[in-house]
């Protein structure tokens, strides 16, 4: 470590060096992960609040590293976005999610799209072909985008969103409220659903600000005719609260943690009995 007391010093801290090495190794291993079948999807139930009915599942990506075990998507997705691997990985996610969900009667499947996928060519063609190949009716697919997808190059992205919606696919605005300009995007594109970030739901008990924010987003949704999903509902208190606020749907550990495809049948039975 040199240049003590200077900003540059930080770069040579042993922990930072170790962190950089880990990232580098992960990035390297990520390149072979798709071919080595190290990815799988897990599915988390989504429930509508008026009837407490299961409406579908969100597909979430998991990477089982042969030596390190499960690596969090919060760690490897940014790496895959940096090196562009998220394009083939995201295609695998979409095709696998559509094929898995096709036999689920009329339930929906929600798939996350990375901003990088919007900048790649042929996204609309890929979605069309994934639906056709799986035999999944477009109405049963929801695509989740965060505002970071809309930040740069938003004209082109909005055009692609219109094309996706023209297929009959539904489009959700994910992690609503944590970005800088979530509100302005509601004017630029007719989203079908707003997903209220779980940082608000998780702090309802202690933060009057969170209470006000969840209420305001729910009534905004109701005025705009947009569904509002409260994310990260873990307790009955949070469930009652977001229902009282006027949210139209929930997702969170209270109704179920993400589970492998093989356990979805059981999750459907359990939730239908609620
Ligand atoms: P997200 O899209 O906001 O997904 C919801 C995250 O919240 C998931 O974390 C889920 O497991 C977690 N979660 C759901 N309910 C609860 C709850 O009640 N309590 C708590 N504490 N957490 C809850 P996960 O699976 O670790 O995914 C993290 C993020 O990684 C996702 O956030 C999404 O941004 C990204 N991601 C996951 N799969 C994909 C994918 O296939 N493609 C892309 N582009 N991003 C993905
Ligand atoms: Ca999501
Ligand atoms: Ca989210
Ligand atoms: Ca998130």
UniProtKB/TrEMBL annotation:
Residues 23-272 form the EAL domain. Transmembrane segments: none annotated. This is EAL domain-containing protein. It comes from Bradyrhizobium cosmicum.
């Amino acid at each position: 470590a040199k240049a003590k007391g200077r900003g540059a010093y930080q770069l040579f801290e042993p922990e930072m060096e170790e962190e950089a090495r880990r990232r580098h190794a992960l990035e390297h291993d990520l390149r072979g992960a798709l071919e080595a079948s190290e990815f799988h999807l897990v599915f988390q139930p989504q429930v509508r609040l008026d009837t407490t009915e299961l409406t579908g599942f969100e597909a979430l990506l998991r990477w089982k590293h042969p030596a390190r075990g499960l690596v969090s998507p919060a760690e490897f997705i940014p790496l895959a976005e940096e090196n562009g691997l998220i394009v083939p990985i995201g295609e695998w996610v979409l095709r696998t999610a559509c094929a898995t969900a096709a036999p689920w009667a009329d339930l929906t499947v929600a798939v996350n799209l990375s901003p990088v996928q919007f900048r790649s060519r042929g996204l609309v063609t890929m979605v069309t072909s994934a639906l056709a190949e799986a035999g999944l009716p477009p109405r049963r697919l929801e695509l989740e985008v965060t505002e970071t997808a809309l930040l740069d190059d938003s004209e082109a992205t909005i055009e692609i969103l219109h094309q996706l919606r023209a297929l009959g696919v539904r489009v959700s605005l994910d992690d609503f409220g944590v970005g800088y300009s979530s509100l302005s995007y509601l004017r630029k594109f007719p989203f079908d659903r707003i997903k209220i970030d779980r940082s608000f739901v998780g702090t309802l008990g202690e933060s009057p600000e969170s209470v006000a924010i969840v209420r305001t987003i729910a009534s905004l949704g109701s005025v705009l005719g947009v569904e509002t999903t409260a994310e990260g509902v873990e307790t009955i208190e949070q469930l009652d609260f977001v229902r009282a606020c006027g949210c139209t749907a929930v997702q969170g550990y209270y109704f179920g943690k993400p589970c492998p495809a093989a356990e979805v049948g059981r999750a459907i039975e359990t939730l239908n009995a609620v």
